[in-house]
Design goal:
Elements: H1 2-6, H2 11-15, H3 17-28, H4 39-44, H5 47-66, H6 78-87, H7 101-113, H8 133-145, H9 156-173, E1 181-185, H10 188-203, H11 207-210, E2 220-226, H12 231-239, E3 247-250, H13 260-272, E4 275-283, H14 295-305, E5 308-313, E6 337-341, H15 342-345, E7 353-357, H16 400-410, H17 413-435, E8 439-441, E9 449-454, H18 464-478, E10 484-488, E11 491-497, H19 505-525
Parallel strand pairs: 2-3, 2-4, 4-5, 5-6
Antiparallel strand pairs: 1-7, 6-7, 8-9, 9-11, 10-11
Bound molecules: pyridoxal-5'-phosphate (PLP).
Amino acid sequence: MESRSNNPTFEQRDGSDSFSAIQRSRSSAPITTGAPQSGLLLDAFDAKLLRDNSETAVSRLEDHLADLSVRGLDLIDPAALSQAARALMTTEHESIAPFDEKRLNAIIDLYIRTGIQVHSPGYMGRQFSGVVPLGGVIDFVSAVVNQPSSFYEAAQLPNVAERIMADELNRFIGWDPGSFAMVTTSGGSLANLTALLAARNKMFPDFWSDGSPAPAGRARPAIAVGADAHYSVSRAAGIMGIGEGQIVRLPINRDHQICMDRARPTLDEAERRGLKVFCLVASAGTTSVGAFDPIDELGDLAREKNIWLHVDGAHGASLLVSDKLRRKLEGIEKVDSLAWDAHKLMFVPAPCTLLFYRNKKDSLAAFRQEASYVFTEDPDIYTELDSGDKNFECTKRPMIMALWALWAVYGRALFAEKIEYLCELTEEIHRVLVEETDFETAHRPEANILCFRYRPNGVGDKDVHRFQLAITDRIKRQGNFFISKVNIDGTAALRVVVMNHRITTEHFRMLLDEIRRVGRDLLRSGE
Ligand SMILES: *Cc1c(COP(=O)(O)O)cnc(C)c1O
């Protein structure tokens, strides 16, 4: 152990006489013990098959990525799709079925064809994105080498890459490099839950052992969130035994941000009701409209009231890598924790989420577990990189690898340039919309999300809501575009998320024409 850590040229170890002797004897002698293996078992694991199979997949994926036609989703009746999928399954159950190239081709084709076409300019609907090809390739490598990453010994490079990416991204947050921590989680929802647990356990150190404090005499734990926070926050509360009545909703202003004038009185009022707010959750990019809460001011308020400030930056934390856009998260260095989805605005395969803590010690607060089969009593230079005690997952994908590889190969500017384009384009299409008298915008865009309504003559106030829902649904079914919808102040709006740098204002005008066409059809048919 010692000599290995002192001497990084550990290839030497392989050169030792006894080790290479074992290697030689292993490779020359076939395994002769145990039950006889069928040739088909050996075939299924044959390394050569990897090349054949992946060449099949790669040629199809290349065609898929190269097709830039405008399209959304081919929405298929689940029963019909299930039938098609079943038809691809072998009927052989007794022995291993021989590999069938045609079956593989058909599976890959069906997989590609039935997805939202995230690489097409017609996809403007959701927050996951088309991936940078290299990111997909690294994810493929991850799947084959299969290195679950909660423990250093099982995933050495991913764990080192996590540390490197943490340092790289912390340059845009600005914490002391020696005292912050970062852990990867399978999605932003899980990152929010994890941070909330850490916040709760810090404020209520006995919660983990004794459960919720008895209401009598002691303040009840509570969470404060912006009224437009992502649903994962209240779900996390539910999981933690924090009831709906213990969630303090901070009012939002016209720009859909937490309203600072009303945040303090709302918190004071919660205190009077016997609630002890242990965490304030702000959004850096709300899911509905992409609004950024005033982190800087909330940071001061949280510090004054001794409340943990968590920023849900699942969508918008990526703006930190852009010199032009970073100011939207001004004050980010004041927060206690930050959730950051790389599978949204950093264009890597999902999931890939980074959960940052300002204080390294806090990262250990979320879970308190003893498990001798994985956790060590005395950390050494290897086990100190383990994250199993800080993340919920035991087996966890080495999700950092695609992000790190892209960062290593292309550098930061790949992300900054694309994000800046997406945000600028969203402002541009907002300007386009303002000029169209039959449309109304629902907000000014702060990031790459834009919500609006189609309101031609003949659509009265009471029909607006249903009309937008019907349009979204019909557009999805027609399959030329994929957009989403969201309720804003109780009324549905059409929602566009610009995730693709190949989208131009022309594509957006095409979408508007499609909306008009669909809307007119709906009005004509009286639906
Ligand atoms: C997408 C999103 C989430 C959920 O993240 P997942 O990675 O989908 O679990 C949470 N908060 C916000 C603001 C989001 O936009």
